[in-house]
Task: structure prediction
Amino acid sequence: MVGRRVVTQLRSRGLPVTAASRTERTRLDWTDTSNWDEVLDGVENVFVVTPVGRSLGHRVAGFLEKAAKAGVANVVVMSAMGTEHAPSDSDQRAAEVRAKELFDRWTVLRPNWLFQDFTEGTFADLARSRNGRLRLPVKKRTEVSFVDARDVADTAVAALLEDHGGKEYTLTGPQALTFREVVKQTRGTESPVWRFKSVDEAGFYFRAADRGWSDRYIDTLNERFAAAVRGNAAEVAEGVREALGRDPIPLARFIREAVL
Result:
């Protein structure tokens, strides 16, 4: 949801950019190091998204080591809100720490849940499998400062092209909202999420496992939902303003401009 937007922005500026993933023409698989040198050949700047709940943070750290040896000058690492509080050897935190150790120019982005999760991401996927019903292990009043993926992409592009070295940005929207509020306001649009209901962790696990998601991924999601219930995802941070000099995109604008 973020990487695609970063690539589109860079290409619109006429800049040479390579998109690399398991499904792109340039293949990048965190579990297969055989072509990493080829992927990094001639690359000056790297934006890397650390997968959530895949136990691949140390693989990403290994890729960054290859990048440093290949002469990459600037790296931008995206993890998730709150990662700075995790142990240094934990999954996503490991990639952040290694970036700081290896590069003189590094930037860390830690976005909250995305508005686009309701239209093209995790929540949309769950709702499509349940006739529009989104059931998550959070309370009715649990608030999250959801952020627009475009704000995250804009920040990544700025960090790649400008001097944001040594910066760590927590990226949120302009206000904290409950899941019910977001669903209510997006209902009737092209979003596949029509209803929201709170369930316990076991109920969420059953539905997520039915989608074929791994135990590790589901456990990580449950950890993030539990953090949100504790109030840890409600903070409205200044990261977007600090990085871009403007206010973050509010929900109303996201709804108005959403393209699925």
User: Anything to note?
Assistant: Strands lie at 20-21, 26-27, 45-49, 74-78, 105-111, 133-136, 143-144, 167-171, 177-178, 195-198. The radius of gyration is 18 Å.
